Amino acid sequence: MIQKIKGLDDLVGLQEALKRERDPGKPCVTICSGTGCQACGCQAVTDSFRAELEKHGLADQVDILTTGCHGFCERGPVVVIKPEGIFYERMQSEDVPEVVEETLVNGRVVERLLYEDPQTGEKLVHEHDVPFYKLQQREILWMNGMIDPTSIEDYIVMGGYSALVKALHSMTPDEIVEAVKRSGLRGRGGGGFPTGRKWESCRRAEGDVKYVICNADEGDPGAYMDRSVMEGNPHSVLEGMIIGAYAIGSHEGYIYVRNEYPLAVENADLALRMARAYGLLGENIAGSGFDFDVRITRGGGAFVCGESSALMQSLEGNVGEPQAKYVHAVEKGLWDRPTTLNNVETWANVPLIIRKGWEEYASVGTEGSKGTKIFSLVGKINNTGLVEVPMGATLREIIFDIGGGIPDGRAFKAVQTGGPSGGCLPEHMLDLPVDFDELTKVGSMMGSGGMIIMDDHTCMVDIARYFINFLQEESCGKCVPCREGLARSLEILNRICEGQGRPEDIPLLEELAETMQGFSLCALGRTAPNPVLSTLKYFRDEYEAHIYEHRCPAGVCKSLIEYWIDPDLCVGCGACVRVCPQQAIKGETKALHVINRQRCIKCGACYDVCRFNAIVIRSGKVQPVAAANPLPSVEA
After folding, report:
1. By percentage, how much of the chain surpasses pLDDT 70?
2. In 3D, which of 28, 31, 34, 39 has the Cα closest to residue 68?
3. Selection from 263, 268, 257, 267 nearest residue 219 by Cα
4. How would residue 628 be classed by pLDDT, with cut points 50, 70 and 90?
5. Is 415 helix (H, G, I), strand (E, B) or coil?
6. Which helix (H) or strand (E) holds 213?
7. DSSP assignment of 115-161, as one string?
8. pLDDT in tens, 296-334
9. Cβ atoms 290, 284 nearer than 8 A
10. Using omega within 30 degrees of 0 as the cis cutoff, is the peptide bond preceding 83 cis?
11. Is it the case that residue 143 has pLDDT exceeding 50?
């Protein structure tokens, strides 16, 4: 029978009892079971390990631990054999018998499953030696590879809920607020507002009923930091929420999570039930006399509901539309009651501050941005995955040292930070320190932490069009500047990419951006022009090439390119013929092939499969337009 925790002695006693039951030297197969690895077959790997261990009579001698996301998504499914820390990548169920036989029975390493350092060609045996992990500082993510997210006992053994018990029994609400203020923690959801100041305002707000909300409605393309934390360590988020609720005087909280995150919903729900069972949630938490409980609400997938006031409208059962900000949520938020809303990663930072002390927490990061930040590296990057680094790490360190650089030896072109409302930064900014203030200075933003990497085959006009299209579809349409500004911007960008651009299009895009920034109702509309403005600022020549020369320098915009076979390089292998969906390529074996341009749909399949670089993309088939009226400069 589970005994409720009623104070620090009970928690410490439980920790010690659990530790005595566990042998740190016992072999353990740790299998990443986050959403990414599940998509790659980690469940089959887990089932195979169970069967093989049973077959070898090792079921009682070797543990199997299914964990949350380890972060190295490019190499999943990831398996780590402990206590040695042997790191196996891209495991499949058919690899399991060999691993059991060689590693667990005979103590030998299966070299073909090891990570190979692309710089040195060396096979690395241990997880901590892999550069992707070695160069990070994992304060929030470190438990993801250490615990079963469905086990509150695993979390408690690792020191979980000690910060909560300390806060409830050894600190006053004012002391907690002051510690969070002094730590320098800023909201990780995008705005970067000082968390302690928000809590202080809500604590001082009038009203007996106050609410605490966790925003897990992560919607940026390519971003999945919050999902992985909620899936892999939901108790860290819950512990932070309870501490925050005690600090501001709240007794009711909500986790607003995307319905598209079923595993996060499942693990969070189980965490709530287990915390209640141990007396760490609900009435008289940990014997302190403080009552607080949490409910989970599933969002419908509307990007705009990541905005605080729209999220609260959705929680109330209304259409998720942003509200005017002349009244702050800390004074009148959910149901017009004082409300504190922070995102998943912000709440997960709170136990660190209380457990370590604000001084140690504030020693990491930059002057204006403290602690670590999780980024999702996606796009044209070798090491796709989640990266946690101290605030102030440079783009170069994140993209090249940890991310492994650009695939296939291609050149880096740009990185888009801050989600669809962020900016695209060029190569000469790779040494920029990444924090809230520095990114804002150069026309981008931190956002929730998404980083989309682009190589030299990326058209920056097309990228701006992609994000404006995304934002137009996700805008609630409530205010004219955002609704009409995005529609007109998309219309212009479509025209440019189709080779019908006009000299007046660039100044018109800038004028629309200025209107959206100045008069949109919420942050979605005010930041929506960032992809256009940043690409105009740093890649203006590409816009001019599209408009004046009817040429796409990156060879992406279909209306401005043609595929052609170089007669000097074609060997007549027929690979292009086999993949062409339109049967637009003809030629005899070992003879020159040709493309019928009338039938070609410019899908690029032939380009992708040609091993001899014989498929050439030619841009600028339309006659250039004379630049009689040069475009105004950015300064103008």
Report:
1. 97
2. 34
3. 257
4. very low
5. strand
6. strand 211-216
7. EE-TTT-PEE-BGGGSHHHHT---SSSGGGGTS-TT-HHHHHHTTTT
8. 999 977 888 988 999 999 999 999 888 887 779 999 999
9. yes
10. yes
11. yes
* Residue in this structure with the two tokens 């190589």, named with its chain if needed: 455
- Tell me, what DSSP letter sits at residue 307? S
How is residue 556 written in tokens? Answer: 């992406």
Please give the Cα distance from 255 to 481 (Å, whole number): 31
State the chain's mean pLDDT as an integer: 93
**Contact assessment for residue 529 and residue 513, using Cβ atoms and an 8 Å cutoff:** yes
**In whole angstroms, how far apart are CA 597 and each of 393, 423, 549, 562, 587?**
48, 36, 21, 8, 14
Alpha helices, DSSP H, located in 278-341: 308-315
**DSSP 8-state symbol, 31:** E
User: Encoding tokens for residue 622?
Assistant: 């339309």
Token pair 């990419």 in the structure block, residue: 497
**What are 591-600's pLDDT values in tens digits?**
999 999 899 9
pTM: 0.92
d(CA 329, CA 333): 4
- Alpha-carbon distance 160 to 172, whole Å? 20
Question: Among 340, 391, 358, which Cα is nearest to 181's?
Answer: 358
Classify 259 as helix, strand or coil.
coil
In this structure, what token pair is assigned to residue 198? Answer: 């928000």
Residue 478 has pLDDT above 50, yes or no: yes
- pLDDT of 212 over the 60 cut: yes
Q: Cβ distance 232 to 239 under 8 Å?
A: no
Cis before residue 77, ω within 30 degrees of 0? yes
| Span 402-434, pLDDT tens digits | 999 999 889 999 999 988 888 999 999 999 999
3-class secondary-structure state, position 589: coil
Joined tokens for residue 231: 């899936």
pLDDT at 354 over 90: yes
Q: Looking at residue 391, what is its pLDDT?
A: 97
The CA distance from 90 to 79, in Å, is 8
What is the DSSP secondary structure assignment for residue 394, as one 8-state letter?
A: B
Query: Counting runs of H as helices and runs of E as strands, what totals does the chain give?
Result: 25, 19
**Cα(186)–Cα(184) distance, integer angstroms:** 6
pLDDT digits (tens, 9 = 90+) for 523-552: 889 999 999 999 999 999 999 999 999 999
Count of C-beta atoms within a 10 Å radius of residue 19: 12
Strand 561-565, strand 615-619: pairing: antiparallel
Q: How many CA atoms lie within 13 A of 385 on its CB side?
A: 28
* Residues 434, 449: Cα–Cα separation, whole Å: 10
Which whole-number Å values give the CA distances from 439 to 223, 267, 272, 442, in the listed order? 18, 34, 37, 6
| Contact residues for 116 (Cβ-Cβ < 8 A; gap 6+) | 122, 123, 124
The answer to whether residue 165 scores a pLDDT higher than 80 is yes
Q: How many residues does the chain have?
A: 636
Residues 521, 523, 527, 529: is their CA dihedral positive or negative? negative
Check: CB of residue 264 under 8 Å from CB of residue 227: yes
In this structure, what are the phi and psi dihedrals at residue 419, rounded to the nearest 5 degrees?
75, -170
Q: How far apart are CA 350 and CA 179, in angstroms?
A: 10
Three-class SS of 73-119? HHHCCCEEEECCCEEECCCCHHHHHHHHHHHHHCCCCCHHHCEECCC
CA 398 to each of CA 130, 383, 388: distance values in angstroms, whole numbers, following the listed order:
15, 10, 9
User: Which amino acid belongs to residue 286?
Assistant: A
Are 144 and 228 a contacting pair, CB within 8 Å? yes
